Amino acid sequence: MRLEQLEYFVATADAGAISAAAQRLGISQPAVSAAVRSLEKELGSPLLKRGNSGVSLTPLGRLTYKDARSILELAQIIRARGKNADLGGSVSICARPLLSFHLTSSIVLPFKKLHPRIDVFVHNVSGLGIIADLKSGRSNIAVTLVSIGLKIREQARNMGCEIVPLYMDTRKIFIGSGHPLAKKKNLTAEDLKTLRIAYYSHSQDHVSSRYAPYFGGEYRLATRDDILDLVIRNEAVFIQAGAMFRHDYRVRKGMMVAKNIPLPDIDHSAPIVAIRTPEISLAERLFWEFLIDNFSIGLQR
Q1: Mean pLDDT of the region 104-129
Q2: Residues 276/162, Cβ–Cβ less than 8 Å
Q3: Which residue, among 198, 167, 197, 23, has the nearest Cα to 103 in the 3D structure?
Q4: Mean pLDDT score of the chain, rounded to an integer?
Q5: pLDDT tens digit string along 156-172?
Q6: If you compute the radius of gyration of the chain from its CA atoms, what whole number of angstroms results?
Q7: How far apart are CA 297 and CA 301, in angstroms?
Q8: 128 or 83, higher pLDDT
Q9: CB within 8 A of 130, min separation 6: which ones?
Q10: Kind of pairing, strands 48-51 and 217-221?
Q11: What pLDDT score was predicted for residue 83?
Q12: Neighbours of 71 (CB within 10 A)
């Protein structure tokens, strides 16, 4: 079995006729026909139903078509790896704002050094906007925290997307560095009752609302800046994924500190996943591989 046979078979299936495939490939019709027939002979069964109106796939042909496409895409990637600087194209990614800093500094910039002719665009979207962005075609790759209640994974699977776990973050309490409890090594459940938790007013913030009953009170606000203003003024605390939120400039400047959440009966895990649509370009596939291989590097430091 040769790549040429698979290429001609896929081209014929896509074009719907051997003559149209030959025209697209820029070769003779007999050459395409001979390659497809030799593949069928090797497999021992027809891949195409031939008729006056063109060709259609047999049951074996449908299975073979899917695998052949994957093999040809993989062959393209292998070739491209040897031509790093020569490959061009563009990649569009949507990501939760919390993830953008790490994504840009640790993934996009190193990737651009390997592939300077590939343009990479990162769009900040809310958790609710991830699936909409993928459905619209604005982005073919997404990086997101998987929040309770949003059913992002379920919706992505229904679209035929591939989902790959990238990192298991842990939720932390972020408290103003001037708060009396900021200097305490470990908070207790009793300490929480003296604090107010601030979180988003929209109904989809299921994670924070799950913690709210353990605190002395709550604030529901529309924007993160409003929430963090309360935290810095020591009027509230904020719960976020620890490794990701430490990139916020207020944390990096020492205006807030992270504390473990003293509620052992609650799962504080914050899974981060990558999602890609079924059809992606070669440039996107190269970025996808780089993303999966490198996302978690440095997050434990």
Answers
A1: 89
A2: yes
A3: 167
A4: 89
A5: 999 999 999 999 999 99
A6: 26
A7: 9
A8: 128
A9: 94, 96, 142, 144, 152, 275
A10: unpaired
A11: 55
A12: 15
Positive or negative torsion for Cα 232, 192, 201, 169:
positive
Read off the pTM: 0.71
**Span 273-282, average pLDDT:** 91
Q: What is the 3-state secondary structure (H, E, C) of the chain?
A: CCHHHHHHHHHHHHHCCHHHHHHHHCCCHHHHHHHHHHHHHHHCCCCEEEECCEEEECHHHHHHHHHHHHHHHHHHHHHHHCCHHHCCEEEEEEECHHHHHHHHHHHHHHHHHHCCCEEEEEEECCCCHHHHHHHHCCCCEEEEECCCCCCHHHHHHHCCCEEEEEEEEEEEEEEECCCHHHHCCCCCHHHHCCCEEEEECCCCCHHHHHHHHHCCEEEEECCHHHHHHHHHCCCCEEEEEHHHHCCCHHHHCCCEEEECCCCCCCCCEEEEEEEECCCCCHHHHHHHHHHHHHCCCCCCC
* Residues near 274 by beta carbon (within 8 Å), at least 6 away in sequence: 141, 142, 143, 163, 164, 166, 288, 291, 292, 295
Phi-psi region of 127 (alpha: psi -120 to 50; beta: other; left: phi over 0): alpha
* Residue 99, CA distances (Å) to 2, 27, 138, 291 in order: 43, 48, 18, 13
Tokens of 94: 């949507």
pLDDT digits (tens, 9 = 90+) for 60-114: 999 999 899 888 888 877 776 665 555 678 999 999 888 888 899 899 999 998 8
CA gap 163, 165 in Å, rounded: 7
